[in-house]
Every structure is written in structure tokens, then in C-alpha cells.
Amino acid sequence: MDEHDRANLEFLLNAEPGVLSDWYEQMDKDDHMYALDLLEVARLELLDQIVITRRDCADAQHLLKNIFK
Predict the structure, then answer these.
(1) Burial group, residue 15, by CB count within 10 angstroms (0-12, 13-18, 19+)
(2) Structure pTM?
(3) Alpha-carbon distance values, 43 to 13, 31, 32, 37, 38 (Å)
(4) What is the pLDDT of residues 30-54, one digit of tens each?
(5) pLDDT at 41
(6) DSSP 20-56
(7) CA separation (Å) from 68 to 40, 42, 63, 65?
């Protein structure tokens, strides 16, 4: 995702409901699909971060258990 995509994603995530509704009405099906693609990429990135964080926490817990036996 490049900077242009990130700016568009930020708009989609932070727009007031009325602004987003106006945007939706003015855009065509291709724009709607692009927006859905951006949201899907962001969702997958967040899932990756959650998995990495959970794995890091599990590794840290394992290390701490071994240190403080």
C-alpha cells in the first residue's frame, strides 16, 4: 500500500458518517471496490500485527517462566 492508498484509507476510517455517505453516493462501483480492497488490506495488516504481538507475548511469558522458576 503506497502513501496515496494510506491517505485514502485514513479518509475512509476517519470520515464523519455524513461525509462518507456523500462520498459513497458520488463514487462509482470501481471506487467502492477500491475502498473495500483498502479496508481488506488494512484488516489483514492488523491481523498480522496481532499474531506477531501474541507470539512475542507468548515468547516473553515462556522466557519469564524459565527465569523465575
Answers:
(1) middle
(2) 0.72
(3) 12, 18, 16, 10, 9
(4) 999 999 999 999 999 988 888 677 7
(5) 94
(6) HHHHHHHS-HHHHHHHHHHHHHHHHHHHHHHHHHHHH
(7) 42, 38, 9, 5
